[in-house]
Amino acid sequence: MQRTLRTRWVATVMAMLLTVALGVVATLRTAQPAHALENGVARTPPMGWNTWNTFGCNINEALIRQMADAIVANGMRDLGYKYVVVDDCWFNPNRDAQGNLQGDPGRFPSGMRALGDYLHARGLLFGIYQVPAAETCAQYFNAYPGATGSMGHEAQDARQFAAWGVDFLKYDWCSPSGTINDQVTAFARMRDALAATGRPIVYSINPNSIHEKTGPLRNWGDVANMWRTTEDITNAWDTGQTNGYPMGIQNIVNVNVPLASHTRPGGFTDPDMMEVGNGGMTDTEMRSHFALWAVMASPLIAGNDLRSASTATLTILRNQHLIAINQDPLGLQAVQISHDGTRRVLAKRLSNGDVAVALFNQGSSTTTVSTTALAIGKTGNSFTLQDAWTGTTSTTSGAITASVAGHGTVVYRVSGGGTTSPPPTFRLRGEASGRCLDVSNGGSANGTQMLIWDCHSGSNQQFTQAGQALRVLGKCLDVPASATAGTRVQIWDCNGGTNQQWALNGNGTVSSVRFPGLCLDVNGAATANGTAVIVWNCHTGANQRWTRS
Fold it and tell me: Per the residue annotation, which of 87, 232, 305, 354 is the catalytic one?
């Protein structure tokens, strides 16, 4: 979570990460979630405001109270922005004689309970920050004194938070040490401690702070209500980071889109707090930022100074059409319908049968982005499109299209007609090995290769069929257009090409439409975990026979 603090530590941290990565890879396959967390909160994505993006460590109770008053006065509270989250640097550097956390007496002279009471009296909810390590992020980077993390104090701190009236805990893994399984254990310890208090507290975790990038590699829905899926956001459109510190809006979207299957009521992927209103992007880019967070069912946590927010900023943050799409009770994240590298289409099913469709232009110049009602899951021949930005409506017999500015996003709410059932998910189990077709390490980047692995319920083994395309992690099963026998099978952005089309044959083989003589094949008829999946000359051997399960 640290912004300027991190710069001088990058070299040190990266060296440590090389060691950490080996442990992460070794434990990745066993880190599947066992069940969904059901603690009764966050049935829709949490909305609110957090101190960090604008103020960092420079916080005090007067600032928090002023921001709370602004949220009420500008109407954001009544639109759902309820959680006011006090991030790092709120605490006394020392625990009291009994080991209890205390608010910093200079910054929060009235105490944390009094701050919570102030927020509750205004119809708002109280959020606070802690870490599972010995030091918070600011302490780790020597920007704040003390070592007051929750390690060894989980139950005590959870009881303290409940006594203060805390409604939301942001729990941040700010350490380059530890495997995914270490993180699961530590995050689960606080999950259980919060549950034991009996107070409903939204549990927000960040498994990505200066650590091997674990977020996209695990569905954390058994541990938390919301979980970070990328490294920290920064106030920029594109930093060129695939998944490293810091990340721009477009970079984050590329990582978060394939994780749609992880989201449900009570559990949401978190692409980080918003930068809307912080001045580093154009108005078009900030509108895209908000629209994409909305359709991805992401928590809408503002991070700007609301006391001085411009009319343009408030117009974005208070867009009721997009808020309604984000807060739909189905709690579904939009799925990717198509992406050609520039034009991206996302669709989010809504509880009343409507579908929200985002037409996103990742290029720098205006272009036409199009899809169809059928492609987004609607049936019939008469539909109404409501533009989420203007509120205006139009009709169509099926075509959904818009001229979209560079870095822009047009969102339509599509109503009318019927709604198709979402396609069933299935695994492809190899007959010879008994193992399943698997996206290596759960990666979602174009070109990530396929292999076999022990069958599990993770999203990197869950396929859907759309025509003759096989989709997984928001991508399509793909072979390069120049493939020959022995070429590795991979995933790639869906583009409708015949090299992404497959025939599931009656004899159990899966053949390429582009290359009819080539079939999905477990290389060398091997059966071990990690064996590559290739295309090879079709035959009826057991290493080319697959069953849907």
Answer: 232
Q: Please state, in angstroms and rounded to a whole number, the distance separating the CA atoms of residues 92 and 257.
A: 39
- Three-state secondary-structure class, residue 367: strand
Instruction: Respond yes or no: is residue 272 known to be catalytic.
Output: no
Q: Which of 157, 167, 172, 438 is catalytic?
A: 172
Ordered strands of the 300-302 beta sheet: 268-270, 226-228, 202-206, 168-172, 125-130, 83-86, 47-50, 300-302
Q: Tell me, yes or no, whether 17 lies in a domain.
A: yes
389 with 474, same domain: the answer is no
3-state secondary structure of 442: helix
Q: How many CB atoms lie within 10 A of CB 118?
A: 18
Same domain, 366 and 405: yes
Neighbouring-strand partners of residue 168: 127, 202
Q: Is residue 520 part of a domain?
A: yes
Q: What share of the chain is helix, strand, coil (3-state, %, to 5)?
A: 25, 25, 45
Q: Which residues contact 516 (CB under 8 A, 6 or more apart)?
A: none
How many CB atoms are closer than 10 A to CB 289?
25
361 lies in the same domain as 389: yes
Instruction: Judge whether 232 counts as a catalytic residue.
Output: yes
List C-alpha distances in Å: 520 to 66, 492, 516, 532, 549.
61, 16, 11, 10, 17
Output the tens digit of pLDDT for each of the chain's 549 residues: 444 444 333 333 333 333 333 333 333 333 344 467 999 999 999 999 999 999 999 999 999 999 999 999 999 999 999 999 999 999 999 999 999 999 999 999 999 999 999 999 999 999 999 999 999 999 999 999 999 999 999 999 999 999 999 999 999 998 888 888 899 999 999 999 999 999 999 999 999 766 665 566 788 999 999 999 999 999 999 999 887 889 999 999 999 998 898 899 999 999 999 999 999 999 999 999 999 999 999 999 999 999 999 999 999 999 999 999 999 999 999 999 888 889 999 999 999 999 999 999 999 999 999 999 999 999 999 999 999 999 999 999 999 999 999 999 999 999 999 988 888 889 999 999 999 999 998 888 899 999 999 998 888 999 998 889 999 988 999 999 999 999 999 999 988 889 999 998 888 899 999 999 999 999 999 999 999 999 999 998 999 999 888
Q: How many residues does the chain have?
A: 549
Number of neighbours of residue 48 by Cβ within 10 angstroms: 24
Q: Is the pTM of this model over 0.70?
A: yes
d(C-alpha 469, C-alpha 423), whole Å: 12
Helical spans, DSSP H, in 245-297: 249-256, 283-295
Residues 57 and 194 in one domain: yes
| CA–CA separation, 331 and 351 (whole Å) | 9
Whichever domain contains 246, its CATH number is 3.20.20.70
Q: If we measure between CA atoms, which residue out of 110, 205, 120 comes closest to residue 165? A: 120
